[in-house]
Design a protein that fits this description.
Layout lengths: L3 E5 L6 E4 L4 E4 L4 H7 L6 E5 L10 H13 L4 E5 L5 H8 L6 E5 L12 H14 L3 E6 L2 E4 L3 E4 L4 E4 L3
Parallel strand pairs: 1-4, 1-5, 5-6, 6-7
Antiparallel strand pairs: 2-3, 7-8, 9-10
Length: 163
Protein backbone atom coordinates (compact mmCIF):
# COMPACT_ATOMS: atom_id res chain seq x y z
CA UNK A 1 0.00 0.00 0.00
CA UNK A 2 1.17 3.50 -0.75
CA UNK A 3 1.27 6.02 2.07
CA UNK A 4 -2.11 6.15 3.79
CA UNK A 5 -3.39 9.71 4.16
CA UNK A 6 -5.51 10.04 7.29
CA UNK A 7 -7.72 13.05 7.89
CA UNK A 8 -9.27 13.49 11.33
CA UNK A 9 -12.45 15.47 11.89
CA UNK A 10 -13.30 14.64 15.51
CA UNK A 11 -16.29 12.61 16.54
CA UNK A 12 -16.88 10.12 19.32
CA UNK A 13 -13.66 8.20 18.64
CA UNK A 14 -11.62 11.17 19.93
CA UNK A 15 -13.87 12.09 22.85
CA UNK A 16 -12.40 12.28 26.32
CA UNK A 17 -13.98 12.82 29.70
CA UNK A 18 -13.15 16.16 31.26
CA UNK A 19 -13.82 16.03 35.03
CA UNK A 20 -13.83 19.80 35.44
CA UNK A 21 -16.72 20.07 33.01
CA UNK A 22 -18.40 16.75 33.82
CA UNK A 23 -18.89 15.99 30.18
CA UNK A 24 -17.15 14.62 27.10
CA UNK A 25 -15.25 16.80 24.68
CA UNK A 26 -13.31 15.99 21.55
CA UNK A 27 -9.62 15.72 22.38
CA UNK A 28 -6.47 15.06 20.37
CA UNK A 29 -6.82 12.58 17.49
CA UNK A 30 -6.15 9.02 18.70
CA UNK A 31 -5.40 7.36 15.35
CA UNK A 32 -1.64 8.02 15.33
CA UNK A 33 -1.18 6.50 18.77
CA UNK A 34 -3.32 3.49 17.89
CA UNK A 35 -1.32 2.81 14.72
CA UNK A 36 1.96 3.12 16.65
CA UNK A 37 0.72 0.68 19.31
CA UNK A 38 -0.31 -1.77 16.60
CA UNK A 39 3.18 -1.50 15.01
CA UNK A 40 1.70 -1.17 11.51
CA UNK A 41 3.93 -2.00 8.55
CA UNK A 42 2.98 0.86 6.24
CA UNK A 43 3.60 4.59 6.00
CA UNK A 44 0.86 6.98 7.01
CA UNK A 45 0.33 10.68 7.49
CA UNK A 46 -2.22 12.12 9.92
CA UNK A 47 -3.67 15.59 9.33
CA UNK A 48 -6.20 17.04 11.74
CA UNK A 49 -8.84 19.01 9.82
CA UNK A 50 -11.12 19.87 12.72
CA UNK A 51 -12.43 18.72 16.09
CA UNK A 52 -16.12 18.57 15.45
CA UNK A 53 -18.96 16.40 16.63
CA UNK A 54 -20.55 15.28 13.37
CA UNK A 55 -23.96 16.46 14.62
CA UNK A 56 -22.45 19.97 14.52
CA UNK A 57 -20.85 19.69 11.06
CA UNK A 58 -21.77 22.34 8.55
CA UNK A 59 -21.73 22.44 4.77
CA UNK A 60 -18.51 24.49 5.08
CA UNK A 61 -16.91 21.71 7.17
CA UNK A 62 -17.84 19.15 4.51
CA UNK A 63 -16.47 21.42 1.77
CA UNK A 64 -13.20 21.63 3.72
CA UNK A 65 -13.01 17.82 3.92
CA UNK A 66 -13.80 17.54 0.21
CA UNK A 67 -11.13 20.12 -0.67
CA UNK A 68 -8.46 18.35 1.38
CA UNK A 69 -9.31 14.98 -0.17
CA UNK A 70 -9.21 16.50 -3.68
CA UNK A 71 -5.87 18.21 -3.05
CA UNK A 72 -4.24 15.15 -1.49
CA UNK A 73 -1.80 13.32 -3.74
CA UNK A 74 -2.58 10.08 -1.86
CA UNK A 75 -4.66 7.40 -3.53
CA UNK A 76 -5.58 5.77 -0.19
CA UNK A 77 -7.45 8.09 2.20
CA UNK A 78 -8.91 7.24 5.60
CA UNK A 79 -11.22 9.79 7.19
CA UNK A 80 -11.84 9.54 10.92
CA UNK A 81 -15.35 10.88 11.37
CA UNK A 82 -18.25 11.06 13.81
CA UNK A 83 -20.88 8.44 13.09
CA UNK A 84 -23.97 10.69 13.06
CA UNK A 85 -22.84 12.71 10.03
CA UNK A 86 -20.67 10.08 8.36
CA UNK A 87 -23.18 9.07 5.68
CA UNK A 88 -23.80 12.70 4.67
CA UNK A 89 -20.08 13.44 4.35
CA UNK A 90 -19.51 10.23 2.40
CA UNK A 91 -22.24 11.20 -0.06
CA UNK A 92 -20.55 14.59 -0.58
CA UNK A 93 -17.32 12.77 -1.47
CA UNK A 94 -18.97 10.19 -3.72
CA UNK A 95 -18.05 12.06 -6.91
CA UNK A 96 -14.33 11.56 -6.14
CA UNK A 97 -14.12 8.12 -7.70
CA UNK A 98 -10.42 8.20 -8.64
CA UNK A 99 -9.23 7.50 -5.07
CA UNK A 100 -9.95 4.88 -2.43
CA UNK A 101 -11.67 6.76 0.38
CA UNK A 102 -12.90 5.06 3.54
CA UNK A 103 -14.67 6.77 6.44
CA UNK A 104 -14.71 5.18 9.86
CA UNK A 105 -15.18 6.12 13.48
CA UNK A 106 -16.53 4.63 16.68
CA UNK A 107 -19.77 4.39 18.58
CA UNK A 108 -17.79 4.53 21.85
CA UNK A 109 -14.70 6.71 22.51
CA UNK A 110 -11.34 5.00 21.91
CA UNK A 111 -10.50 5.76 25.55
CA UNK A 112 -13.24 3.36 26.74
CA UNK A 113 -12.28 -0.24 27.47
CA UNK A 114 -15.32 -1.45 25.52
CA UNK A 115 -14.80 0.50 22.32
CA UNK A 116 -15.24 -0.47 18.70
CA UNK A 117 -12.54 2.01 17.63
CA UNK A 118 -9.59 -0.33 17.05
CA UNK A 119 -11.80 -2.92 15.35
CA UNK A 120 -13.27 -0.31 12.97
CA UNK A 121 -9.85 1.16 12.18
CA UNK A 122 -8.42 -2.27 11.41
CA UNK A 123 -11.38 -3.15 9.24
CA UNK A 124 -11.09 0.15 7.34
CA UNK A 125 -7.34 -0.21 6.74
CA UNK A 126 -7.69 -3.82 5.64
CA UNK A 127 -10.53 -2.90 3.30
CA UNK A 128 -8.84 0.08 1.69
CA UNK A 129 -6.06 -2.15 0.39
CA UNK A 130 -8.42 -4.35 -1.63
CA UNK A 131 -11.18 -1.97 -2.67
CA UNK A 132 -11.63 -0.46 -6.08
CA UNK A 133 -11.54 3.35 -6.19
CA UNK A 134 -14.63 4.92 -4.64
CA UNK A 135 -16.06 6.08 -1.32
CA UNK A 136 -16.89 3.62 1.46
CA UNK A 137 -17.86 3.46 5.11
CA UNK A 138 -16.28 0.77 7.31
CA UNK A 139 -18.21 0.18 10.52
CA UNK A 140 -19.37 -2.78 12.58
CA UNK A 141 -17.17 -5.27 10.70
CA UNK A 142 -18.65 -4.40 7.32
CA UNK A 143 -17.68 -2.19 4.39
CA UNK A 144 -20.48 -0.31 2.68
CA UNK A 145 -20.58 1.70 -0.54
CA UNK A 146 -21.20 5.33 0.43
CA UNK A 147 -24.52 5.46 -1.42
CA UNK A 148 -25.86 2.21 0.07
CA UNK A 149 -25.57 2.68 3.83
CA UNK A 150 -27.57 4.06 6.73
CA UNK A 151 -26.93 4.38 10.44
CA UNK A 152 -29.51 2.46 12.44
CA UNK A 153 -29.53 4.52 15.64
CA UNK A 154 -31.90 2.16 17.45
CA UNK A 155 -29.59 -0.83 16.88
CA UNK A 156 -26.33 1.17 17.21
CA UNK A 157 -24.90 -0.05 13.92
CA UNK A 158 -24.58 0.69 10.23
CA UNK A 159 -26.60 -1.31 7.70
CA UNK A 160 -27.16 -1.59 3.98
CA UNK A 161 -29.73 0.96 2.90
CA UNK A 162 -32.97 -0.48 1.61
CA UNK A 163 -33.60 1.14 -1.73
Amino acid sequence: MQTLQIFTTGGTIDKQYFDALSDFQIGDPVIGGILQQMNVGFDYQVDELMRRDSLDMTDEDRRQIQTQVCESKAQHILIMHGTDGMVETASRLNELSDKKIVLTGALQPAAFSETDAIFNIGCAIGAIQGLTPGVYIAMNGQVFAADKVVKNRAEHRFETALV
